[in-house]
Amino acid sequence: MSEAVLDIQDVWKQFDRRGAGAPQVARWLGRRHRDVFWALRGLSFTVAPGEMFGIVGANGSGKSTLLRLIGGVGRPTRGRIAARREVGAVLTLGDAFDPLLTGRENALTAALVAGFTRREAASMLDEISEFAELEDAFDFPLRTYSDGMAVRLAFSVAMSIDPEVLILDEVLAVGDARFQARCFDRLEALRADGRTILLTSHDAAQLERLCDRALWLAHGEIAARGTPAEVLHAYQDAMRLETERRAHVLPETAGAVAVESRFGTLEVEITNVAVLGSPDSAVGLRIELLPHAPVEEPIVGVSLHRVVDGTKVLDVSTLGDRTTLGRVGVPTTLELWFDRLDVEAGNYRFDVGVYERGWAAVYDYHWQAYPLEIPPQSSGFGPPRRWRVL
Amino acid sequence: MPEVRPRPRRGAYSTRYLGDLTTHLVGRALARRHRRSLFGWAWSLALPVAQLAIFSLVFNKILPLNVPHYAAFLFIGITTWTWFSTSATLAVGSLEGNRSLVLRPRFPAAVLPVTAVLTGLVDYLFALPVMLVILALQVGLSWSVVALVPLAAVQLLLCLAVAWVVAPLNVFFRDVQHAVTIALLLGFYLTPVFYEPGAAPSSLSWIYTYNPMARLIEAERTILLDKTWPQAAPLVVLTLVLLAAAAAAFAAFRRVQHRLPDEL
Predict the structure, then answer these.
(1) pTM for the complete prediction?
(2) A55, A108, A201, B136: which has the fewest Cβ within 10 Å?
(3) What span, in angstroms and rounded, lies between the C-alpha atoms of B102 and B94?
C-alpha cells in the first residue's frame, strides 16, 4: 500500500457545552468549569490514495466533528491529523446559498469560497450548470427553485471543485433516483482518476455498494472497522438491538385498523392513521403522532405495498421530500396527499413509520397496516395520456 | 476548445485570490441588500441624507449652533461616522452570519470582517457625490478634496482594527454585539459629528485628543471647509498608531481563527 493520504493519529476533540468563553470567565472568577465533553476519543486510522472510505454512526457519534477536523476546520484537542493532499469538503449541502441571488451567483460564490479565483470560478460555471441540468433556471433566483433543483446545483458545485480528497457528509441521499445514479457515476469516475473520497450516509446499502472500507463510529470511538459488509452489518445489528432494548411492551393502538405488525421504541407513537380521499381523486393519509418526550426533527416515512406479491410500489419520507417537523413536543397531526397514485388496480397496504432524526432508531412502525383498494377501471390513473383515432 | 480544468491549490492564498474573494463577498452583501427592493441603491444614501435633514433642522432652527456652512460641516461628519459605525455593526455579526463559510475547509475567515468594512466604504463612496455638491454650493470646491483619499486610507486602518477584534470576540462572547451597539451610540455623541469640539470645556478636550474618529473628522473639515492643511505630525502619529493597531488586530484574529469553528 502506498503512503496514506490521510493519517489520523490518536485524535481527541473536546467541546464545551456553554461555549469557549465560559471556562475563561470561570477561571477569572476563580471557579472550576466542567461543562465539557469529548466528541472524539482517541481515533486512529489511515486512508490510502484512491480509496472510497465510508463512515457510519448515529447522530452525535462524532462523524461530523471528525470530517470537519479532517477538512482542516478547527484543530483536534489532542492528536494529529496529517493530510498529504489538499482536502475539499462538502460538509453541508448548499447552506451558503442565498435565496435572493441566482443559481449562477450562488455557484460563483461557492467556487470562490472553495479557493478558486474569479476567472477560474467563471470557467467552471458552464460545467456546473450542465451537470445540474438547470438550463435557463441557472439565471433565476434560488427562491424559485424546487428543492430538487437546489440540491442538484449544490451537488454539481461540489463535484466541480474536484479536490484530491473529497469529503461528502450525508449528501448522497438527495435528489431523484436518476440524478443520484449520475452522482454515483461521477464518484466512480473520480475514484478511477485516483481521488480519495470520504463519505458518510445513513443509507447502509449505499455505503456498502460504494465503499472499499468502512468505519463505524460510536460515542466518539471506533466501534468497528473493516470491509463495508462487515462494518455495516454490525452497525445495523446494533441499531436493531438498540431499538429492541428501548422498546416497551407494545400496546395496541386504539381505533386503528388492525395493525398486523408493529415495532419501535414508542418514544413517539403513531396513535392514529386515517386514509382520506378516494382512489378516483386525490388520496391522503392523516397521521397522528404522540411524543412521550419532546424529540427534534423526527422523520415520518410512508410506503405502499401491493398485497398480492408484497411489491413495494411507493416509498416516501418527510426527509426525502425535505419537509421538517421541527421539534415535536405535543401531539402532532400531519397529512400526506397524493394528487394521483398511478398504480394498477388491486389491494394495497400502507406502512407508516416514525423515526429518530438521521434514521438513528425506529420510534414506531406500523407494517402493512392501512389498506387501500384501487378499484379496476377507475379513471384518472396511469400517466397523463390521450388517444387519437386517425 | 480544450480547456485546462482549474484545480484547487494548497499552500498560501494568492493576493489575487483574496482580492477576488473579498470583492465577490462585498458584491454579494450589496446585492443581498438591494435586490428586490424598489429603490435599491438609493437606500445607501437615504440614511445620511435623512440625518442631514434632521440635524440641519434641529441645530439650525431649534437649537442654533451657529456653525458656518452647517450642512457641509454636518455631512462630512455624518458620512465619515456612518462608515465607521456600519463597519463595526456589520463586522460584529460577520462571522456568525456566515457560519457556513467559516466552516468550509481553508476558508480565510479574516476576509469576513474586511468585507464588512468595505461594504461600509461602498456606502461612503455613494454619499461622496452628494457631499461634493453640498461643498460646491456652500464653500466651493478645490483640489484639496483629493486629501480625502489618504484620510480614508487612515480610517480604513481604524475600521479594520475594530472589525478584526469585535468579530471573533463576539463569537466567544455574544455580549459583544450589544456592547458595540451602545459604544457606537456613545461614540456618536463623543465624536464631534454635529457640533464643534471647541464648544466643549477644556477639561473634556482629552475626549477629542484620544478619539481617532474626532481627529479624522476634524482633519477632513480643515481641508474641505477651511481649505488649509491640517498639522501633519498628529496625523502621522495617528496613522502609525492605527497601522500598529490593525496589524495587532489581524495577528490576534489569526491566533484565534482555528477556535472559531468550535464556537459557531
Answers:
(1) 0.74
(2) B136
(3) 10
